[in-house]
Amino acid sequence: MRVLVVNAGSSSLKISVIGREEETIAAASVAHGDTGALIQFTATHAPLDASGHRIVHGGQDFSAPALIDDEVIARLEALVPLAPLHQQVALDGVRTTMRALPGVPAVACFDTAFHATLDRAASTYAIPAAWRQRWGLRRFGFHGLSHQWASRRALELTGRAEAGSRVVTCHLGAGASLCAVRAGRSVDTTMGFTPLEGLVMNTRSGTVDPGMILWLIRRAGVDSAEVEEALDRRSGLAALSGTDGDTRHVMAAAAAGDDGARLAIAVWVHRLRQSIGAMAATLGGVDVLVFTGGIGEHEPLLRAETAAGLGFLGVALDAGANAAATGDADVSATEAGCRTVVVTAREDRQIARLVRARLG
Questions:
Q1: What are phi and psi of 324, to 5 degrees?
Q2: What's the rounded Cα separation, in Å, for the pair 345 and 274?
Q3: What's the mean pLDDT in 109-133?
Q4: CB atoms within 10 A of CB 338
């Protein structure tokens, strides 16, 4: 089965064709809204047996891959306000692909599905029950496709059995989140009802005091739409550093002595270390710490900065291995009690696996 995978991220649309042995037959990255490039890619690599689509938010309705039809699309449209940087782009990709591949089954694979195993203590907000029941307000978690792939690959790299394993996965890209994985199941994560909660990200604020938001709207007179736009698109590393928020640009500015960029990195690392500690507390310790995503894979200095504050968890890096890491690699110091690995994000392979399983 040749599966077309369409992965809508917050900054680009990644498309690939995955073969029956999970080999990558072709891959490309195109700008959001470039339907012509998506159609051309699809035509070039026909015939295709199925398409798989990364959908960030499945809400309460979808906890497993779903065959896409008009009804499914309509239900996913209703969730666009909860993931404004991703959901509409993904659905646009679905429609374009289904027009280009009439009669070819399309499967939605959800970032929230891996976190369906969160227990009530981890998924419940301490808010009025009437709100939770009426509007389905709960912690969903995101990046599940990446966390699922990375946690399994980490166990393969370290030779550990899944049973009893305690893994913390750090998906660090333009969007970022952590996941505590016990014996292959998500038991805690940093993102919540939307992909805005948790870590500091490229343009997203991560967790802030909700009282501050109320103050901005009620006391400072800032329009709620402006608050939403600012927290999603004008906060995070971009706001702190005065750059576009791309980590490479922030790191370059910091190296040149820019104080705002240095503060941005310090805040980013502080929140990341703090949150890794929280995931470790949920698990009762950590056997493997995983770095994945664009930043997690390609910024050894940030990996080293993060690990430097986690010695109490048994984390220690081999400086040479960390600096030289390419692809999947164990970068742990020999004496480390917790193994640290770098895993290439392969949401495309995970999606292809789920598509094949869904279609039997």
A1: -95, -5
A2: 23
A3: 97
A4: 20
Report the pLDDT averaged over residues 96-104. 96
Torsion of CA 207, 211, 215, 217, to 10 degrees: 60
The count of C-alpha atoms lying within 13 angstroms of the C-alpha of 323, restricted to the half-sphere facing its C-beta, is 3
What does the radius of gyration of the chain's CA atoms come to, in whole angstroms? 20
Q: 243-281: string of b/e by CB count within 10 Å (b at 16+)?
A: bebbbebbbebbeeebeebbebbebbbebbbebbeebbe
- The 3-state secondary structure of 145-158 reads HHHHHHHHHHHHHH
Predicted local distance difference test score (pLDDT) of residue 84: 87
Q: Residues 23-77: pLDDT tens digits?
A: 999 999 998 888 899 999 999 999 999 999 999 999 999 999 999 999 999 999 9
Please, which residues bridge with residue 106 across strands? Answer: 51
Instruction: Answer for the pair 97, 4: CB distance below 8 angstroms, yes or no.
Output: yes
Residue type, 221: G
Average pLDDT, the chain: 96
Residue in 17, 208, 197, 50 with CA at minimum distance from that of residue 115: 197
Could you tell me which of 221, 181, 5 has the C-alpha nearest to residue 109? 5
Kindly report the backbone phi and psi dihedral angles of residue 312, in degrees, each rounded to the nearest multiple of 5, phi listed first: -65, -15
Task: Supply 334's token pair.
Answer: 């020999």
Residues 6+ apart with CB under 8 A from 22: 349, 352, 353
CB atoms within 10 A of CB 334: 6
pTM, rounded to two decimals: 0.95
Structure tokens that stand for 205 in this block: 């604020």
| Measured distance CA(246)–CA(291) in Å, rounded | 18
- Which residues are known catalytic residues? 111
**Residue 66 pairs with which residues in a beta bridge?**
108
**High-pLDDT (> 90) share of the chain, %:** 95
- The token pair at 348 is 């495309």
Q: Is 141 in contact with 115 (CB distance < 8 Å)?
A: yes
Q: How far, in Å, CA of 101 to CA of 94, rounded?
A: 10
Work out the pLDDT band at 295, boundaries 50, 70, 90: very high
Instruction: Give yes or no for residue 100 having a pLDDT over 80.
Output: yes
Written as one letter, the residue type at 294 is G
* Strand-pair partners of 265: none
